[in-house]
C-alpha cells in the first residue's frame, strides 16, 4: 500500500476520495497494527515526503496512543504496552530522528508523539533513557534541533506526572530549559520553545523552588524573558509568572516588588496579549489570597496551610490606579460579542477580585475615579466609572457600601433610562444587578429598596427589558437578583403588586424576535424561574395561571415539521428552557397541599408534553424534561403509576446514557423520586431498572460521579419494594461490598479524592439503610444476617479513618441503628464485637468535652452495662472527628443507640467484661 | 503546552440557573429520601395517630396548650381545621391543629401515671423517682409542641420541609410562669417513644439546657422551661425527692420504671404517690376546696347501667338500674359522682369484689375522664390504711439486702 498517497487522499477535498482513503487506513490498522504504526512513523521521519502526509501520519500516530474518553484511553495504553518491543523501538527511533528534520511541522508533530509515548511508558519504568538521550547533546545541537528538543521536553512535562521522574533528571531538564531561555541565547525560536517548556516544567520544580539560589535563578530568567524584544516570548514569560503565582505563592515575597513593576509596565505599554497576562498575574494572586483568607475565616486550624502575605493589600495604592486606567480601554460593541476578552474586561474583573480580597479598603481608592468620570460626556469615561462601581460591590461591607449605593441608585436608574450609549446602559443594568445581589436581602440591616423607590426600580427595569438585547438581558439579570432578595419574605412580598406585570413583561421578552441574541431568552426564562421560586401564597394563583401558558409554549415547539440541524438544536434549547420553567413551577406548587391539588389537574397534559419532548429525539433523553418529571413524580405521588408504561422506555434510555453523564445522573435521581412516589407499585419495573443500574456500575465508560447516586438509588428501590428486593441482593450486595472496600482505602488521596470517597461512602450507606429498612418486620430478615459482619466492618473502617465528613457520619450511625433495628437479637453480639473496646472508653474519660466525659461517668455509674457502653462509644466516635458535630448527628446517634439498647434490653446480654481497673480510673 | 487562554467570567454570575435547578432538585431528592427513611424508622409519626373512636369533651383535663413559635398567635378556635376524625395525623400535621382539636390530639399522647397502691418489687433497681410532683388544684398538665430555634443547616424552602418539632410533657406552674418538664416525647422530630425512661431523662437533661429554653424568656420563647430533678430510687435518692426543697408547690412523688417506654394513657409503669409531708392535697377535695367526709369517685355510665373506671380495660365498680337512670335523665357516657358509704370497698386477692356506692350527681362538666381504678384505691387507702414513706424505705432496704447478686448490674439496659 502506498502510504503517502493514501495519507494525501485522506485530506482531499473530494469526499469520496477522502472516504476511500480513510477506509483503507482503517483496514490497514485492523489487519496489521504494528506494520501500520511503523509505516506511519517512517512516513513522518522521511524528509523526502510531502509535509502534509508527514503531519497526518504523526497525527494518526498520536491518536493511536491517546483519546479523550477515559475508557478508550486505557484501551490504547494497553494496546501500546502489549506491542512487541522491537516494533516500539523502531517507531521511537524514527520519532527521535524526526526531531532533526528541517521541516518545522514534522519536528513539532514528532515531539508531541514522543511525549505521548513517554506518558505511557515512563510510569511503567520503560524508556528510561529517553530524557538522558534528549539532553545529552543539547548544547551541541543546531538551533532548530535544540528548539524541537526543548519543545519535546515541554510536552513531556505536560504528559507525565512529576512523581515518575526522579529529581536528578528533573534538575537536568530544568537546567536545559532555563539555559535555553537565557538572553544570551541568540535564537528566538529556541528561547520561545524553552519558555513554553518551562511553563509545563514548573510543576516539577518543587524542590528547586525551595532552594533559594535555584529559585532566584529561575525567577531572574523568567523576569528577564518578560522584557524580551519578541512579543511571543514576553507573553510566554508572563504565562510562567501566572503559573508561579498559584503554584508557588508562598515563595514570592522577595520578588513581588519587581514583578509589580514589570506587570505595571506591561499593562500600560505592552501589546494586549502580554498586558492580559500581566493583569492575570494579579487576578491569580487575588484567587490565592481569597482562598487563604476564606480558610482563616473558617477558623480551620490547618497546620500545613499557606500563610497570607497580603500582597494585594500592600500593592493596593499602586494596583488600583493601574487597573482603573485599563477600564478606559474598552472596545466598541464588546458587549455584543460573546467571545470578547480585552484589557478593559480583564482589568475590571481583576478590580472585582481585588475588592473581594481587601474589602472596605478599596472603596476610598475607587470612589474619586467614579465621581470624576461618571458624568463625563465621553461614554468611555461614564462606562468605566460605572464598571468600576459595579466591580467593587462584592467584598466591602454593607455598612461601607449602603450609603454610597443609596446615593447612586437613582443616578443609575436615570442612566439606564436616558444614557445614549448602549455600552453604558449595559454596564449600568449589570451594576444594578450586582447591587441587588450583594446588598439587598432579608439579612441586610438597612434595606436599599424601600416602598418609596421599589415602584421606580421595577418600572425602569421593565422598560429596560425592551432595550437592545444585551441591555435587556442585563435588566432581566437585575430583576433576578431583585426577586432573590425577597426569597424568604412571607407571607407578603413587596413584589406582589407588580408580579403580574413582571411576569407579563418577561413573557413578552421571550417572544422578541431578537431574543436569540445575547442569550436574552434564556435570561428572561431564568428570571421567570426565580420569580416563581420566590413567590408567596399571595401570588400562588399567578404561578398557577402560568402553567397553561408555559404548556402552550412547549406545545408550540412540538409542532414544527422537518427541521434543519440548526433549527433542531434551537428547538432543543427552547424545550430545555420551558421544561426547566415547568420544573420550577411544579416544585413550587407541589410544596404546598392546596396549590398541589390545584396544579394536579394539569398533570396528565404536562406528562403528555414531556413524553412528546422525549419522542423528538432518537437516541438521547432531554435532561431538563427528565428533571421536570422528577418534580412531577414528587407532586403526583402514587398516581404517577399511570404514566409508567409510556415513560419507562425513556427512563431506561436515560440510564443507558453513558456519554452525557449528567443525563444519566439526573435519571438516576428520578428513579428515586418514582420509588418514593409509587412505593411497591414500582415493582413491575424493577427488573429492568436494577439490571440497568448494575450495568452502569460495572461500566468504566460512565463518569464516576454518577456511581454514588446509583448506590443511593438501590436504597430507594429497596425501601419502596421491601422484601421483594430479595432477588437483587445477590447482585447488589457484592457490588456494595467491593465499592465499600475500595472506599476504605484513602491513604494518600488528595482532597478531591477524599470528597469523592465520602460521596461514595454516603451512597453505599444509604443503600444499606434502605435495604435494612425495607426488610424490617419481614420474615426474610434472616437473609441479611450474612452481610452484617461485612457492613459492621465497613462502619468500623469509616470510624477509624479520620476523613469522613459530617454527612457520612450521620448516615453511618443511621445504618448502625437500622441494622440493630432490623436484625434485632441477631445483631447483638456482632455489634459488641465490632465497636467495643476499653481503649475507647478510657479515651472518653480523658476527653475534654464535657458531654463525652459526663456520659462516660454516667456509663461508669451504671456499672458499664452494654447499652451505656455503646452510648459512650458513639459519643467517642463523635469526639474523634475534627469538625463540629451537628445536632442532627447527635440525634441520629441517640436513636441508633436507643435501637441498640433495645436489643440488649430484650436479650439481657448483660454486663460487659471490662475489668475492675477501669472503674477505678479517673 | 497550551498557552494560557484564560477568559474569566465577564458580567456573569458564577452559577447558571440550570445548575441551580439541578442542585435544587438534588436537594429536594435528598430531603425526600431522608423523610422516607425517617418514616421507615417509625420516627415521630405512626405512634402519634389520631384515632376516631375516642371523643373528648371540649375542655379536658389535662389541659393542653400548643405553643408553636415563632408564630405565637393562634387562630380562633372556630377557624380550626375541619374535623380530622378519619385522619391519621403525624406530629407535623398535628402541630398545625389549633385550639380544641390540638388539645384533644395532644391530650391523648400523654402518659398518665397510675397511683401507687402497693410498693413495686425492685423499687430501688428498676425505678426512678422525680422530686415532687407539682400541681395546683386544677392541674395544668401540658403537652408542649415546641419549635426550638432550628439548627438545621440545609433548610431548603420557605415552606420549611425540614422543620423539626420537640414534644415535651410538662406542667405549667403559674406562680413562676414556668413549664416544668417531666418527660420528653419527641426531640427535633425524632421520637423518643421507644426509648426507656432512663434514656429519655438522660437525653432530656443533656439536651434541654443546650437549647436555651431554660434561659429567661426571650422573643424566642415566652415562658421559661425548667427541669424536674430525677433520682435513682435508692435510700438517698428517695430521701432527696421526698424531703428536698423545691421552688414550686409539691404534690407527691412520681416513680418511673427505668425500662418503660413512653406509653400514652394510663400505665402501671409510672406511679404517683403522696403523703401529707409532700403534698397539700393528699385527700381529694371538693369544688370548694373542702375534704368531704366520705370519699367521692367519678365513674362512667355505660348503656347497660354498668359503672366503670377510665382504665383500659375498665374496671366495673357498680351498676345502676335502668329505671333509675331514666328517672334521673342520665345517658350512657355520662360521668357520675358517687360517694363511698360505710360499706367501703371489698377486695379479694387484689380484685374488687363489692363497693358501697351512693349516687351523688353528675360530675363537673369539665371532667374528661372517670377516675382510674388506682386513684380510687389510693384515695381509699389514704383514708383507711395509707402506704407510708416508711413502707417505701423499708422496701428499698430489703431489696438492697438481696441486691448483692451479680444479676443486678444491668441497670441501664
UniProtKB/TrEMBL annotation, chain A:
Chain coiled-coil ranges: none
GO CC aspect terms: cytoplasm
Domain Importin N-terminal: residue ranges: 21-101
Gene3D superfamilies assigned to the protein according to its UniProt record, in alphabetical order: Leucine-rich Repeat Variant (1.25.10.10)
Gene Ontology molecular function: small GTPase binding
Cited SUPFAM superfamilies: ARM repeat (SSF48371)
Principal place of residence: cytoplasm
One Pfam family matching this protein: TPR_IMB1
GO biological process: protein import into nucleus
Record bears the keyword Magnesium: no
Database matches in InterPro entries: ARM-like, ARM-type_fold, IMB1_TNPO1-like_TPR, Importin-beta_N, Importin_beta
Keywords: Cytoplasm, Protein transport, Repeat, Transport
Compartment list: Cytoplasm
Similarity remark: Belongs to the importin beta family. Importin beta-1 subfamily.
Annotated protein name in UniProt: Importin N-terminal domain-containing protein
From TrEMBL, chain B:
Region (Disordered): 1-38, 51-89
Keywords: Cytoplasm, Nucleus, RNA-binding, Transport
Stretches with biased composition (Basic and acidic residues): 18-36
Residues annotated as domain Snurportin-1 m3G cap-binding: 109-270
GO cellular component, one term: nucleus
CDD domains referenced in this protein's UniProt entry, alphabetically: Snurportin-1_C
A Gene Ontology molecular function term of the record: RNA binding
Major localisation: cytoplasm
Pfam families linked: SPN1_m3Gcap_bd (PF21974)
Domain of life according to the entry: Eukaryota
One GO BP: snRNA import into nucleus
SUPFAM superfamilies xrefs: DNA ligase/mRNA capping enzyme, catalytic domain
Subcellular location: Cytoplasm; Nucleus
Function of the protein: Functions as an U snRNP-specific nuclear import adapter. Involved in the trimethylguanosine (m3G)-cap-dependent nuclear import of U snRNPs. Binds specifically to the terminal m3G-cap U snRNAs.
Family per similarity comment: Belongs to the snurportin family.
Record-given protein name: Snurportin-1
Native organism: Rhamnella rubrinervis
Amino acid at each position: 500500500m502506498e502510504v503517502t498517497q493514501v495519507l494525501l487522499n485522506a485530506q482531499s477535498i473530494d469526499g469520496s476520495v477522502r472516504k476511500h482513503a480513510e477506509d483503507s487506513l482503517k483496514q490497514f490498522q485492523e489487519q496489521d497494527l504494528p506494520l501500520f504504526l511503523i509505516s506511519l512513523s517512517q512516513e513522518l521521519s522521511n524528509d523526502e515526503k510531502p509535509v502534509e502526509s508527514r503531519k497526518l501520519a504523526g497525527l494518526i500516530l498520536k491518536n493511536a496512543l491517546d483519546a479523550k474518553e477515559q475508557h478508550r484511553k486505557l484501551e490504547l495504553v494497553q494496546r501500546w504496552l502489549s506491542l512487541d518491543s522491537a516494533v516500539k523501538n523502531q517507531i521511537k527511533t524514527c520519532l527521535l530522528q524526526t526531531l532533526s528534520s528541517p521541516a518545522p511541522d514534522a519536528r513539532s508533530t514528532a515531539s508531541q508523539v514522543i511525549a505521548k509515548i513517554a506518558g505511557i511508558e515512563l510510569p511503567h519504568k520503560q524508556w528510561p533513557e529517553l530524557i538522558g538521550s534528549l539532553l545529552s547533546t543539547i548544547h551541541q545541537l543546531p538551533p532548530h534541533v535544540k528548539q524541537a528538543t526543548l519543545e519535546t521536553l515541554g510536552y513531556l512535562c505536560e504528559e507525565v506526572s512529576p512523581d515518575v521522574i526522579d529529581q536528578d533528571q528533573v534538575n537536568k531538564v530544568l537546567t536545559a530549559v532555563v539555559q535555553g531561555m537565557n538572553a544570551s541565547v541568540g535564537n528566538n525560536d529556541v528561547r520561545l520553545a524553552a519558555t513554553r517548556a518551562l511553563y509545563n516544567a514548573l510543576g516539577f520544580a518543587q524542590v528547586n523552588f525551595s532552594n533559594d539560589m535555584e529559585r532566584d535563578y529561575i525567577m531572574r530568567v523568567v523576569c528577564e524573558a518578560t522584557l524580551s524584544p519578541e512579543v511571543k516570548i514576553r507573553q510566554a514569560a508572563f504565562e510562567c509568572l501566572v503559573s508561579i503565582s498559584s503554584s508557588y505563592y508562598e515563595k514570592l515575597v522577595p520578588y513581588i516588588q519587581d514583578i509589580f513593576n514589570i506587570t505595571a509596565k506591561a499593562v500600560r505599554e505592552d501589546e494586549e496579549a502580554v498586558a492580559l497576562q500581566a493583569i492575570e498575574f494579579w487576578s491569580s494572586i487575588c484567587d490565592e489570597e481569597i482562598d487563604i483568607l476564606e480558610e482563616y475565616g473558617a477558623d480551620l486550624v490547618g497546620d500545613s496551610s499557606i500563610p497570607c502575605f497580603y500582597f494585594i493589600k500592600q500593592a493596593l495604592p499602586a494596583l488600583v490606579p493601574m487597573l482603573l486606567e485599563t477600564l478606559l480601554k474598552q472596545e466598541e460593541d464588546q458587549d455584543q460579542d460573546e467571545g470578547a476578552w480585552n484589557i478593559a474586561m480583564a482589568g475590571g474583573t481583576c478590580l472585582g477580585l481585588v475588592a473581594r480580597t481587601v474589602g472596605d479598603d478599596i472603596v476610598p481608592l475607587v470612589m474619586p475615579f467614579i465621581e470624576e468620570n461618571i458624568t463625563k460626556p465621553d461614554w468611555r469615561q461614564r462606562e468605566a466609572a460605572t464598571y468600576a462601581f459595579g466591580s467593587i460591590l462584592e467584598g466591602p461591607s454593607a455598612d461601607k457600601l449602603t450609603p454610597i449605593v443609596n446615593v447612586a441608585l437613582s443616578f443609575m436608574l436615570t442612566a439606564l433610562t436616558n444614557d445614549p450609549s448602549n455600552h453604558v446602559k449595559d454596564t449600568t443594568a449589570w451594576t444594578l444587578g450586582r447591587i441587588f445581589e450583594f446588598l439587598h436581602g432579608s439579612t441586610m440591616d438597612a434595606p436599599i429598596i424601600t416602598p418609596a423607590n421599589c415602584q421606580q426600580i421595577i418600572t425602569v427595569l421593565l422598560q429596560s427589558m425592551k432595550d437592545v438585547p444585551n441591555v435587556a438581558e442585563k435588566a432581566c439579570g437585575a430583576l433576578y437578583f431583585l426577586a432573590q432578595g425577597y426569597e424568604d419574605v412571607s407571607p407578603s412580598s413587596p413584589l406582589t403588586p407588580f408580579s403580574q406585570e413582571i411576569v407579563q413583561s418577561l413573557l413578552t421578552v421571550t417572544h422578541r424576535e431578537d431574543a436569540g441574541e445575547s442569550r436574552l431568552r434564556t435570561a428572561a426564562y431564568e428570571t421567570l424561574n426565580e420569580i416563581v421560586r420566590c413567590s408567596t401564597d399571595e401570588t400562588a394563583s399567578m404561578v398557577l395561571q402560568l402553567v397553561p401558558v408555559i404548556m402552550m409554549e412547549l406545545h408550540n415547539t412540538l409542532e414544527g415539521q422537518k427541521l434543519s440541524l440548526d433549527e433542531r438544536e434551537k428547538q432543543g434549547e427552547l424545550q430545555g428552557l420551558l421544561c426547566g420553567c415547568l420544573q420550577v413551577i411544579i416544585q413550587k406548587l407541589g410544596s404546598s397541599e392546596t396549590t398541589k391539588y390545584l396544579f394536579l389537574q394539569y398533570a396528565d397534559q404536562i406528562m403528555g408534553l414531556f413524553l412528546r419532548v422525549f419522542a423528538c429525539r432518537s437516541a438521547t433523553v432531554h435532561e431538563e424534561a427528565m428533571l421536570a418529571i422528577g418534580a412531577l413524580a414528587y407532586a403526583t405521588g402514587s398516581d404517577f403509576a399511570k404514566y409508567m408504561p409510556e415513560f419507562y422506555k425513556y427512563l431506561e434510555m436515560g440510564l443507558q446514557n453513558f456519554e452525557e453523564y449528567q443525563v444519566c445522573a439526573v435519571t438516576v435521581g428520578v428513579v428515586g423520586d418514582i420509588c418514593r412516589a409509587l412505593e411497591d407499585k414500582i415493582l413491575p419495573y424493577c427488573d429492568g431498572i436494577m439490571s440497568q443500574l448494575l450495568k452502569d456500575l460495572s461500566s468504566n465508560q460512565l463518569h464516576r460521579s454518577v456511581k454514588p447516586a446509583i448506590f443511593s438509588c438501590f436504597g430507594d428501590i429497596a425501601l419502596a419494594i421491601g422484601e421483594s428486593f430479595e432477588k437483587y441482593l445477590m447482585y447488589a450486595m457484592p457490588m456494595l461490598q467491593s465499592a465499600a472496600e475500595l472506599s476504605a482505602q484513602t491513604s494518600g488521596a488528595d482532597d478531591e479524592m477524599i470528597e469523592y470517597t465520602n460521596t461514595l461512602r454516603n451512597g453505599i450507606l444509604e443503600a444499606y439503610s434502605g435495604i435494612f429498612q425495607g426488610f424490617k418486620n419481614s420474615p426474610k430478615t434472616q437473609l441479611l444476617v450474612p452481610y452484617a459482619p461485612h457492613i459492621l466492618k465497613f462502619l468500623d473502617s469509616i470510624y477509624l479513618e479520620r476523613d469522613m465528613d459530617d454527612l457520612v457520619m450521620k448516615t453511618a450511625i443511621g445504618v448502625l441503628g437500622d441494622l440493630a433495628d432490623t436484625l434485632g437479637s441477631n445483631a447483638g453480639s456482632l455489634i459488641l464485637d465490632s465497636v467495643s473496646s476499653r481503649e475507647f472508653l478510657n479515651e472518653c474519660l480523658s476527653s475534654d468535652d464535657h458531654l463525652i466525659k459526663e456520659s462516660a461517668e454516667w456509663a461508669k455509674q451504671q456499672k458499664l452495662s452494654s447499652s451505656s457502653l455503646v452510648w459512650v462509644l458513639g459519643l467517642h466516635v463523635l469526639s474523634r472527628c475534627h469538625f463540629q458535630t451537628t445536632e442532627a448527628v447527635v440525634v441520629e446517634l441517640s436513636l441508633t443507640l436507643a435501637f441498640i439498647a433495645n436489643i440488649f434490653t430484650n436479650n439481657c446480654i448483660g454486663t460487659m467484661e471490662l475489668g475492675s481497673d477501669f472503674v477505678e480510673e479517673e | 503546552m497550551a498557552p494560557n487562554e484564560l477568559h474569566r467570567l465577564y458580567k456573569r454570575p458564577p452559577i447558571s440557573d440550570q445548575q441551580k435547578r439541578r442542585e435544587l432538585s438534588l436537594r429536594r431528592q435528598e430531603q425526600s429520601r431522608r423523610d422516607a427513611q425517617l418514616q421507615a424508622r417509625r420516627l415521630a409519626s405512626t405512634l402519634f395517630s389520631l384515632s376516631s373512636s375516642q371523643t373528648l369533651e371540649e375542655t379536658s383535663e389535662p389541659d393542653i396548650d400548643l405553643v408553636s413559635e415563632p408564630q405565637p398567635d393562634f387562630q380562633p378556635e372556630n377557624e380550626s381545621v375541619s374535623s380530622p376524625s378519619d385522619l391519621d395525623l403525624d406530629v407535623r400535621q398535628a402541630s398545625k391543629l389549633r385550639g380544641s382539636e390540638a388539645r384533644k390530639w395532644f391530650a391523648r399522647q400523654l402518659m398518665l401515671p397510675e397511683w401507687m397502691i402497693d410498693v413495686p418489687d425492685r423499687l430501688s433497681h428498676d425505678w426512678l423517682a422525680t422530686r415532687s410532683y407539682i400541681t395546683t388544684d386544677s392541674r395544668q398538665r401540658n403537652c408542649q409542641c415546641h419549635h426550638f430555634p432550628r439548627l438545621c443547616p440545609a433548610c431548603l424552602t420557605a415552606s420549611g420541609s425540614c422543620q423539626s418539632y420537640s414534644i415535651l410533657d410538662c406542667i405549667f406552674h403559674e406562680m413562676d410562669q414556668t413549664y416544668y418538664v417531666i418527660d420528653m416525647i419527641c426531640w427535633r422530630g425524632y421520637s423518643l417513644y421507644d426509648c426507656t425512661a432512663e434514656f429519655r431523662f438522660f437525653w432530656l437533661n443533656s439536651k434541654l439546657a443546650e437549647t436555651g429554653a431554660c434561659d429567661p424568656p426571650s422573643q424566642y420563647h415566652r415562658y421559661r422551661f425548667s427541669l424536674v430533678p430525677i433520682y435513682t430510687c435508692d435510700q438517698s435518692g428517695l430521701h432527696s425527692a421526698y424531703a428536698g426543697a423545691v421552688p414550686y408547690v409539691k404534690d407527691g412523688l412520681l416513680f418511673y420504671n427505668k425500662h418503660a417506654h413512653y406509653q400514652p394513657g394510663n400505665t402501671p409503669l409510672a406511679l404517683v404517690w403522696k403523703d401529707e409531708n409532700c403534698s397539700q392535697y393528699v385527700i381529694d377535695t371538693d369544688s370548694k376546696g373542702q375534704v368531704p367526709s366520705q370519699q367521692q369517685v367519678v365513674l362512667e355510665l355505660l348503656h347497660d347501667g354498668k359503672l366503670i373506671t377510665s382504665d383500659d380495660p375498665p374496671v366495673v365498680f357498680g351498676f345502676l338500674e335502668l329505671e333509675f337512670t331514666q328517672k334521673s335523665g342520665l345517658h350512657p357516657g355520662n360521668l357520675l359522682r358517687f360517694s363511698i358509704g360505710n360499706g367501703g370497698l371489698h377486695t379479694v386477692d387484689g380484685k374488687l369484689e363489692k363497693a358501697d356506692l351512693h349516687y351523688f350527681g353528675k360530675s363537673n362538666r369539665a371532667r374528661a375522664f372517670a377516675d382510674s381504678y388506682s386513684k380510687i384505691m389510693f384515695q381509699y387507702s389514704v383514708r383507711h390504711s395509707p402506704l407510708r414513706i416508711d413502707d417505701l424505705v423499708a422496701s428499698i432496704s430489703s431489696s438492697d439486702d438481696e441486691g448483692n447478686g451479680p444479676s443486678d448490674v444491668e441497670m441501664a439496659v
